[in-house]
Amino acid sequence: MHYYHEIDMLITNQIYEQGYISYNMENLTKLQHILFLRVLELTLEEIKQYFECTVDEKNKILGCKMGALHLIKQLTTLKNSNVFYRFK
User: Fold this and answer.
1) Fewer CB within 10 A of the end CB, N or C, for the chain?
2) Domain extents for the chain?
3) Which of 17-31, 39-53, 67-81 has the lowest average pLDDT?
4) Distance between CA 9 and CA 34 in Å, rounded?
5) DSSP letter string over 6-44?
6) Separation between Cα atoms, residue 61 and residue 74, nearest integer Å
């Protein structure tokens, strides 16, 4: 969380004298989105742009990434199922 705060992706509600940082529910929800987008392998720059997009643009980005991940999963399943044979 501190990292995302340092790069201005999360805005804190309050910083206490002891150095503790307080986040509200909106920030925690945004953090969940950030972590999900990282799982989809979006870069930090892409994530920053994502939060500035319209809903339609966000849906397009997610659709593309989810489709790519689905394809990778299918290829991995095929590879692990020994369907591929070596021909000489």
Assistant:
1) C
2) 2-80
3) 67-81
4) 9
5) HTTSS--SEE-TTS-EE--HHHHHHHHHHHHHHHTT--H
6) 20
In three-state secondary structure terms, 51 is coil
Q: What is the pTM of this model?
A: 0.65
DSSP letter assigned to residue 58: H
Q: Is residue 59 helix, strand or coil? A: helix
- Residues 6 or more apart whose Cβ sits within 8 Å of residue 51: 9, 30, 33
β-bridge mates for residue 59, sequence order: none
Fold of 2-80: Multidrug-efflux Transporter Regulator; Chain: A; Domain 2 (1.10.1660)
